[in-house]
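Input set for joint prediction.
Command: fold jointly, output tokens.
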Amino acid sequence: MENHETQISKPKSRLIFLSTDHKTIGILYGFTGLLFLLLGFSIMMLMRWQLAFPGQPIPFIGSWFGQDRAPGGIMLPEFYNQLGAMHGTIMVFLGVVPIVVGAFGNYLVPLQIGAPDMAFPKLNLMSYWLYVLGGLCALSSFFMPGGAAQSGWTSYPPLADIATTGQTFWLIAIIFLALSSMLNSINIITTIVQLRAKGMTFMRLPFFVWAQFITGFLLLLAFPALEAASVLQLMDRLAGTSFFLPSGLVVSGQPLSVSGGGSPLLWQHLFWFLAHPEVYVLILPAMGIVAEILANNTRKPLWGYRSMVYATIFLGFMSFIVWAHHMFLTGMGTIISGFFQATTMIISIPSVVILLALLISLWGGSIRFTTPMLFALAFLPMFGIGGLTGLPLGLTISDIPLHDTYYVIGHFHYIVAPGTVFAIFGGIYYWFPKLTGRKMNDVLGRIHFAGSLVFMNGVFFPMFILGLAGVSRRLWDGGAQYQFAQHVLHWHEFMSISAWLLAVFQIPFIVNLFWSIRKGKKVRENYWDATTLEWAASSPPPHGNFFPLPEVYRSPYEYSVPGYAEDFLPQNQFFGEGLKIKEKG
Amino acid sequence: MQMNIPYSIETRPDTGLHNAKLGIWLFLASEVMLFGALFSSYALLRVGAESWPRGADILNVPLGAVNTIILIVSSITMVRSWTSLLKKDFKKFRLLLSTTELLGVLFLVIKFTEYRMKFEHGLYPSGSTFLAIYFTMTGLHALHLLGGIVVNAYHLILGKRQWNLNPEKFTHRIEATGLYWHFVDLIWIILFPLLYLT
Amino acid sequence: MSLKAFHIFFISLSSLLSFGVAAWTIFLKNDALLGIVFIILAFFLIVYGVRFLVQQKNVSFL
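tokens >
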């Protein structure tokens, strides 16, 4: 047992696709996730053509989709629905969550707590491959007769129950993804509890690790609900049961020959029991990334670290009892609605605590405007807009007119796109020197940032205008068939052009990423003068990370400590007898 | 040479756990949520149904009762195989784990006999919501038990080598498997009265 | 929680279930045979549980 500290060990397999090293798996997760992110974005750009110019043939690539999807290059409504469902599924389940939890969590958590690897390296590899399998399952559904799943990323029955074969593949994909994220979250929680370095108490964990810890619990406990729901819907589709099919259903004029007696609402409850905590799975690790970048680039400790930690824990608990605010339109009854309105208003408090603590952390800091810092700074107001526009959706009276409109799309995209995705970009720029020993180009980074910020807002802000005008979010023609929508429809064109320009401004990022891996400027190991443990390892860290394992003497963000020569005091740096806090036991 | 993960065998002093024990309990927590979702669905569907049949009128109570006894006994042999490992008695461990295996297989055989009897009478999952939830929940439970049987078979076949290599780690593995086995049995203890008796 | 603790929990629950099943078969079904089997099972489980606790005194609950 003692020898793990001294011997430099080699990974068992030389194939990176079979490596059990948490860093390799993290990078695999990252690239796969980014690929899915790009795919989901491309799907969205196609949909934006249809919304801006309904009924016109798609230029250049219109003939690629074949007669049964887009005859003459004009997108069929069925194909639009498939794209819509797959955009949501890919972005949430295959893109953002695998990146923030699978990639950032896998790579950074063991490094930041001073562990040699994850607690269960083989399970880690298995969770990656289950994720890939789920992804392939979801994508293969495009080639099924009748096309991919087309009942939205929420797959509401009874429509989803009687949809084409693609839906079955969607369900199987979800079961794979549920297993994958269960293994991943078991791994992350166990690693954080068990493998913390000597002296790394819970209150000395970097905020990012805390965010991952709570996220792990959310994934662990919420995903089984959707897994169960998927099993039930699979039974409905394959074994002819009617869990979600009510009695007396008529499809195309024909009564459906099922036993009936099911409840479509049951699916919505099970689905949102997952999907609301999933929202926090999307945002908490992003907040963690932003907290790391902010503390480092303001050169001062995070303001209110403890209150942020307690707020995160509270947020985790509350996120399990707010799910039905997605279902106010179903007419569950005023008492249930009342309860969920109250919990929804309560859960906004810890979110505000975290956001405000991050904002106040800027106060009096000597801010360095590095590329990752720009993304982190942009995250704050963007997440703020997303959060504040969510409040009217938490109250029945304002939710009912707004719920089926573009307003909702604007609200959650502000949280996920300029929120989480900006944090992902910032995190990539920030930790790139650790992954490769080189830094990414700053000029390209700034071009990427400026373009992304402007055009993200160009895409999503007009959605509030459309939404308040009452334009439905589910229409294939973007609302062109309605008289009342005519005076705002010109915004669709604006949004679509913004989306395509947003894509153009991702090119500098992609070029920068691949160019910097080989040709980027070489930098020293602790490039950002950071205090957390990942910067104590070499760049890139070897298999086993630390030799010997580090010992921790203080809290994570000791910047500008009076009496210390440098403006940063790493967690593992021994300094002054008084600063070394006695270990228990 | 593989890297050693700290606390994969020995207990971490400040948490009082080794990795596998925390891992398996987290896994069981997730499983509780999975079956919890199904039990909630059962409650919601039953409350919303116009009429709900009595399980005893459709299902074979004596067979279910025999299966219940089989699973209770199997969990006793499972825990005994673990305690005999604690006493360093590998022979007794093997005997008891084989018994557990046999009982598990017997349970599945009886379960599938029950299924076949239902199918012969034309009772399929599509027949009614009660049958649907019965087949789904017991089917999922049977799948879990099958998983446990596979893991135990692995321990039976490859156990000797691991026992000689690292007895402490092997004992931990048997304990984790035993916890899972108990959980699966516990689900049946709830399923049996819920589906067969009410 | 170790397997010992979980086993005790499981055995307690099983004996409760056995009493329940026995009551159900005797009072609702008038099936004396099954009822007696489950009463015997319940008492067996209680005796077994106590013996298990005594025998495995030095195994940790944690």
